[in-house]
Amino acid sequence: REEEERLRNKIRADHEKALEEAKEKLKKSRDEIQAEIQTEKNKVVQELKKKDSKPLPPVPLPNLIGINSGEPADLDIREKRNKIKEMMKHAWDNYRQYGWGHNELKPIARKGHSTNIFGNSQMGATIVDALDTLYIMGLHDEFREGQEWIDKNLDFSVNSEVSVFEVNIRFIGGLLAAYYLSGQEVFKIKAVQLAGKLLPAFNTPTGIPWAMVNLKSGVGRNWGWASAGSSILAEFGTLHMEFVHLSYLTGDPVYYNKVMHIRKLLQKMDRPNGLYPNYLNPRTGRWGQHHTSVGGLGDSFYEYLLKAWLMSDKMDTEARKMYDDAIEAIEKHLIRKSNGGLTFIGEWKNGHLERKMGHLTCFAGGMFALGADGSRDDKAGHYLQLGAEIAHTCHESYDRTTLKLGPEAFKFDGGVEAVAVRQNEKYYILRPEVIETYWYMWRFTHDPKYRQWGWEATQAIDKYCRVSSGFSGVKDVYSSSPTYDDVQQSFFLAETLKYLYLLFSNDDLLPLDNWVFNTEAHPLPVLHLANTTLSGNPAYR
Ligand code: DMJ
């Protein structure tokens, strides 16, 4: 009897499980199911290809100029630089002690931290993101520890759904930069392994990649919050630099072809007022909501057009043209002067200009300065000036707070000038964009005010974000007794501290004629490639 009862229960449970699975399947659209089938098919094809692929040809490294100490002669500048290095040590040592192997550190709870962009696996995001900063600062023991962890533990065969964009800029970018700086093969090998895991994300009806991909199954999908199932411009538009390097290093054009396909598709599309909307549906190839931004959701797409040109030794003139066209439309429709005379970049939402600027948008000051040389109609002076104006506005957004740290977003409306209005826009999470712009402006002008502003920011971060076990973001930059968010972001080590360190270093450390920084501040060398081919690589000759 008992046996009968047990069997009956098992049959009932199996039925329920099958029903649940069928319900889950039914929830998926036809397109999604077809995309999954296509992904599986492509996987098999790729596996077959891999089997009979020849070993990769050795590729001569590009001329690696300017990997030196960059030590400034001036004692005061040297001391400031040493302070920034000490901050890096503090951030790293505490991550090492309390968060090792986790993606990020919770410096107050003293444990690991992660967000959904890294999936559910411990991928040591802080280690990979921090490597090149450690190297540049001469923290070689720490660099070696990181390398050892990567060699032994960084594994991408995990059942984990990650953000294609974030993994590309932080992991692939970080690994490639570590490879070029140190020459250690392990970084190149890991970068290529990871890139292979991202490729299935491109298996969509249009070739515009999904925002997320499962590293094991290769199944991709988009963020639930994105307009009408769309992919995001700043995500699928921020792969170019890393993917060109991957093709260069492996001799396999697959990466290059993926990103060129995206570019060609974008070139063919109509743009409302010449502006690129932030959302594009990867199934239909149509724009989603008409929202344009030089901040979140749009930002690094424009940055990568310019940097594709720079990284190709200015041969990729197609990218430069797309950049010039885009920034002309941005200047016409999004850039304004406030009543108080501050130049700001607003956001375009369904035919209306929102007079709000994000902290993320502040990177654009540096971008305008970087793109000044080579600009259309020889408007170099104009773009350098525009960069200086954005740097000034962003400095004001810091200076008008209690903590002298910038809010996440600030307005220029009804008497408000460069100040956050909503409570949920008053936080500072150790972001780099304002300091990034100070550094580019410093390189191009040597105006001492940029070092001064960078030093103000360093002191404010050290005073208000430093805790005994690392650095934390703060929730309200207008409050004299701020609370912490208890996250030490990996980009704090990759970008914020690196840009500060470079700001107080000599210019011959990573000169901008030879290196292009990816959007996560990972330096990649300029490649001497022809316009749309990879003829610099002997594999293609
Ligand atoms: C970084 O991960 C990158 O700079 C990215 O492009 C956007 N912003 C974050 C840091 O704020």
UniProtKB/TrEMBL annotation:
<dbReference type="GO" id="GO:0070062">
    <property type="term" value="C:extracellular exosome"/>
</dbReference>
<dbReference type="InterPro" id="IPR050749">
    <property type="entry name" value="Glycosyl_Hydrolase_47"/>
</dbReference>
<dbReference type="GO" id="GO:0000139">
    <property type="term" value="C:Golgi membrane"/>
</dbReference>
<keyword id="KW-1015">Disulfide bond</keyword>
<feature type="active site">
    <location>
        <position position="433"/>
    </location>
</feature>
<keyword id="KW-0175">Coiled coil</keyword>
<keyword id="KW-0735">Signal-anchor</keyword>
<dbReference type="InterPro" id="IPR012341">
    <property type="entry name" value="6hp_glycosidase-like_sf"/>
</dbReference>
<dbReference type="Pfam" id="PF01532">
    <property type="entry name" value="Glyco_hydro_47"/>
</dbReference>
<keyword id="KW-0812">Transmembrane</keyword>
<dbReference type="GO" id="GO:0004571">
    <property type="term" value="F:mannosyl-oligosaccharide 1,2-alpha-mannosidase activity"/>
</dbReference>
<comment type="pathway">
    <text>Protein modification; protein glycosylation.</text>
</comment>
<keyword id="KW-0106">Calcium</keyword>
<dbReference type="GO" id="GO:0005783">
    <property type="term" value="C:endoplasmic reticulum"/>
</dbReference>
<keyword id="KW-0472">Membrane</keyword>
<keyword id="KW-0326">Glycosidase</keyword>
<feature type="binding site">
    <location>
        <position position="519"/>
    </location>
    <ligand>
        <name>Ca(2+)</name>
    </ligand>
</feature>
<dbReference type="GO" id="GO:0005509">
    <property type="term" value="F:calcium ion binding"/>
</dbReference>
<feature type="disulfide bond">
    <location>
        <begin position="362"/>
        <end position="394"/>
    </location>
</feature>
<keyword id="KW-0479">Metal-binding</keyword>
<comment type="similarity">
    <text>Belongs to the glycosyl hydrolase 47 family.</text>
</comment>
<comment type="function">
    <text>Involved in the maturation of Asn-linked oligosaccharides. Progressively trim alpha-1,2-linked mannose residues from Man(9)GlcNAc(2) to produce Man(5)GlcNAc(2).</text>
</comment>
<keyword id="KW-0378">Hydrolase</keyword>
<dbReference type="InterPro" id="IPR036026">
    <property type="entry name" value="Seven-hairpin_glycosidases"/>
</dbReference>
<dbReference type="GO" id="GO:0005975">
    <property type="term" value="P:carbohydrate metabolic process"/>
</dbReference>
<protein>
    <recommendedName>
        <fullName>alpha-1,2-Mannosidase</fullName>
        <ecNumber>3.2.1.-</ecNumber>
    </recommendedName>
</protein>
<feature type="coiled-coil region">
    <location>
        <begin position="1"/>
        <end position="50"/>
    </location>
</feature>
<dbReference type="InterPro" id="IPR001382">
    <property type="entry name" value="Glyco_hydro_47"/>
</dbReference>
<feature type="active site" description="Proton donor">
    <location>
        <position position="408"/>
    </location>
</feature>
<feature type="active site" description="Proton donor">
    <location>
        <position position="166"/>
    </location>
</feature>
<feature type="active site">
    <location>
        <position position="299"/>
    </location>
</feature>
